[in-house]
Amino acid sequence: MTLQQLKYVIEVARSRSINKAAQKLFISQPSLSNALKELEEEIGITIFFRTNKGILITPEGSEFLGYARQVVEQAELLENRYTDTRSPQQNFSVSAQHYAFAVSAFVRLLKEYDREEYEFSLRETKTYEIIDDVTNLRSEIGILYVNDFNKNVIHKFLREGNLSFHELFEAKPHVFISSQNPLAKKDYVTLPDLDPYPYLSYEQGDYNSFYFSEEILSTLSRPKNIRVSDRATLFNLLIGLNGYTISTGVISHKLNSKDIIAVPLKVDEVINVGYITHKNVTTSPLAKIYIQYLKETILEELQ
Description:
Number of strands: 12
Strand order of the largest sheet: 4-3-5-12-6
CATH superfamily of the domain at 170-272: Periplasmic binding protein-like II
Shape: elongated
CATH class of the domain at 170-272: Alpha Beta
Domain HTH lysR-type: 1-58
Strand content: 15-25%
Structural class: alpha/beta
Protein name: DNA-binding transcriptional LysR family regulator
CATH architecture of the domain at 170-272: 3-Layer(aba) Sandwich
Largest sheet: 5 strands, mixed
InterPro entries: LysR_HTH_N (IPR000847), LysR_subst-bd (IPR005119), WH-like_DNA-bd_sf (IPR036388), WH_DNA-bd_sf (IPR036390)
Organism: Mesobacillus foraminis
GO molecular function: DNA binding; DNA-binding transcription factor activity
């Protein structure tokens, strides 16, 4: 087993394709395939399943990747400490539900990360895909919520993916609405108050289950419904159609228009927002910094 083979495995897992990984590694696809085959034969496990749609990481491969990342990171630290070579390009990925505080923390990380080369990724995506991204090591951190309604299902998927949930904060439900909405002046709103207005929610694709909804109270029937795929569209519709969505009440006016406000929703519900990590992967220095920025950003926006 060589350090180069470990780097090959990490890049294949990141690219989700042997062909794409070979291009990034500047080697031929047959050479990369042979190197992976030799490594799998040496260690006695199958790291990747090859399919027509790309590669899938096996449970044994996921555990192996966790150790491989640690070895490669330690080797890079050793090289940087005792050689004059420049620092290698750093990689860091986050998958999240549509939370402004996740973006704010990501922006801060980039502003304060002083390197000439890096490759960072922030995916605002569907709930199931967040879990899948962290399970298959496409992202190191995933950000989502659980509550009494969905926690059994979400935690089942987390257990199957060998993931851990770490709570960031507990929130009472709020509605996001336009500052010009007739409800904007109320101290709180009730569910009947919202009936005349379009309800906006994030679509969840093939996993459009109530349990994977990004909004609580997903089982309620509403007369007017609009599904969107991104936060900018949702905010535009909040303003343009006097629509509403249900969230935590944490909103960043540094990144989002002050035309959007949060009003408490009078329901007996609690939202627990947190981040997920893979149990077999040691948290990287960048991830630790990002998590700290998350906590600081949330505190600032809750004040």
